UniProtKB/TrEMBL annotation:
It comes from Anaerosolibacter carboniphilus. CDD domains: HTH_ARSR. Gene3D superfamilies: Winged helix-like DNA-binding domain superfamily/Winged helix DNA-binding domain. It comes from the Bacteria. One of its GO terms (molecular function) is DNA-binding transcription factor activity. Pfam families: HTH_5. Residues 6-99 form the HTH arsR-type domain. Keywords: DNA-binding, Transcription, Transcription regulation. This is DNA-binding transcriptional ArsR family regulator.
């Protein structure tokens, strides 16, 4: 299986993060992930086709908001709290509190 792209902390940029969060579905994914340390793609409780969900997960991952860990055939999602807090202090807390 190919390696998934995750931007380094110095590659995180605010416009890409805000653009990713500009979609209500992706905001809902972040809201669901904020309540868990790590969860599977299926546990996000969003009623969309797999292809649409994959697109939203990719946008969130490539913007640097989430990390996707592959274990066998399962994909585990988590928010990149530490990296985002280091790069943009307080941003993620502000967003999550206002979703």
């Amino acid at each position: 299986m190919r390696e998934l792209f995750h931007p380094n902390i110095d590659q995180l940029n605010l416009p890409a993060i805000l653009k990713a969060l500009g979609d209500p579905i992706r905001l809902n994914i972040i809201k669901n992930l904020a309540n868990n340390y790590e969860t599977t793609c299926a546990c996000c409780n969003i009623d969309l086709p797999k292809s649409a969900l994959s697109h939203h997960f990719r946008v969130l991952r490539e913007s640097g908001l989430i990390k996707v860990r592959i274990e066998g055939k399962q994909r585990f999602l988590s928010i990149r709290y530490e990296e985002l807090e280091e790069r943009f202090p307080g941003l993620l807390d502000l967003i999550i509190k206002n979703i």
